[in-house]
Amino acid sequence: MTKNKTPDQLRSARWFAPDDLRAFGHRSRAMQMGYAPEEWRDRPVIAIINTWSDAQPCHMHFKSRVDDVKRGVLMAGGFPMELPALSLSESLLKPTTMLYRNMLAMDAEELLRGHPVDGVVLMGGCDKTTPALLLGATSMNLPAIYLPAGPMLRGNWKGRTLGSGSDAWKYWDERRAGKISDKDWVDMEAGIARSYGTCMTMGTASTMTAIAESIGMTLPGASSIPAADANHIRMSSEAGRRIVEMVWEDLTPQKIQTRQAFENAITVAMAMGCSTNAIIHLIAQARRAGQDISLDDFETASRKVPVIANVRPSGDRYLMEDFFYAGGLPGLMSRIKDHLHLGCMTASGKTLGENIADAEVYNDDVIRDVANPIYKEGALAVLKGNLAPDGCVIKPSACDPRFLKHTGPALVFDDYPSMKKAVDDPDLDVTADHVLILRNAGPQGGPGMPEWGMLPIPTKLVKQGVRDMVRLSDARMSGTSYGACILHVSPESFIGGPLSLVRNGDRITIDVAARTINLDVPEAELAKRRAAWRAPERRFERGYGWMFSRHIKQANEGCDFDFLETGFGKPVGEPSIY
């Protein structure tokens, strides 16, 4: 370790070192908590931002893992300080955690700015916690390391392996078709989530923690370790030790998060069969780091990097526990290293190339070779056309191939309740060739762009054996979801985007190979509809939602608040201490 700082240069020294009245107060209050001056004097103060809560099943183990982090910090000569933060439970927080991602980002940034800390361990994992914590830490730019919660154990029901989300959607259709009893349904509820940790499919949680690792913000291999594995405890302690070294080295997010680091993250995401949500979060984080990443970068990677992680929902059999045993993310990156910038610095203090130099793959079916992928292109495709001039997203690796080129009539719903009622109508005039459309579900319309994009297939069609059809919205969908779902239509319908002009029966044409999506209606007719369109009523009249609706950006721009992006105004200085 090379020390680039001396104790008097530590940020926390501004609080504790001076011989003045304010520093007297800081020291005396630390002693009030039972700490002796020897415990903090000339030592880095390490914040541990902990997103544990009683409403967060993914982070149940953080209540004890924080002690493992503290153990590591103390071993390395640091002074740990736990700072609880907003938890954002994907399963329980409504209407959507995406409404509050930026709130947690602000929470993290201001916790770090206002407290006497020199570096930070970020404890997250559930979908929005990873991007939110990284957004805040990137803006604050103190030495930071991310500690992923890790995926839960495989689900099990009647000897069948169950995957979070993916199997819930699958078996819900079977229940709607009358093939699953009440008792079996309760047994499945008890068997699909058997331990603490995040979804064990390649959903948004595993996608985003793997992205954090591929950018360089975790310890090597950290994102693949199951939450219940003893390796996770050891990794937590190691993260505590490493952040102390990072403070002395002055290794900050800005030095790690280069444009090439984000290109690595996009490449890895494509090879993993990533969640569609990766696009929104990566664009937002790149902008916080001052890097110009756009939908075009995802499209470029999609054309050259195949999906090689055979993990549901893109894969057909395996889950994250299998992925870990097969070599985890280092193993996967070793197989696509020709597409990676191996010289990028990481939180380990070593380059990405050094981190994966000895990585191996132990199961060639779980982590395929690039010559034998599960899908020949990347997991995501960006479509553009007159229906989505700023782009929309599909996950072709997880949908019925027959819908990759499709023309069908629109069946339009303006809100979720009316759509939900209609799909259960046995007399609904719908076929498997229809394009189901849900609008007013975007960043402002949702509000917060909920995960409503995997629209339920009408019960009438489910009973006929239909299990996929084209669904189109300005919403998001869970990373555990699958099917021919086209999402993130930009600009959204709530602000007058072209999706707001579609009428029942209009023909819509999708061509994934050509990356196009178009509404087959003459421009003159669209101009008439546009002139007649009236904006819906605003969703909020006060509070956080009022602020959200006035500052949220569109999906293709990362859904950050405009005033939080790096280019908005001068950098914020250190707080005054008087």
From TrEMBL:
Domain Dihydroxy-acid/6-phosphogluconate dehydratase C-terminal span(s) in chain numbering: 365-559
PROSITE patterns, per the entry: ILVD_EDD_1
Single GO MF descriptor: iron-sulfur cluster binding
Keywords from the named record: Iron, Iron-sulfur, Lyase, Metal-binding
Species of the source: Bradyrhizobium macuxiense
Protein name (record): Dihydroxy-acid dehydratase
Positions of the Dihydroxy-acid/6-phosphogluconate dehydratase N-terminal domain: 43-355
Pfam families: ILV_EDD_C (PF24877), ILVD_EDD_N (PF00920)
EC numbers: 4.2.1.9
Signal peptide: none
InterPro entries documented for this protein: Dihydro-acid_dehy_C, DiOHA_6PGluconate_deHydtase_CS, ILV_EDD_C, ILV_EDD_N, IlvD/EDD_N, Sugar_Degrad_Dehydratases
Family to which this protein belongs: Belongs to the IlvD/Edd family.
Iron in keyword set: yes
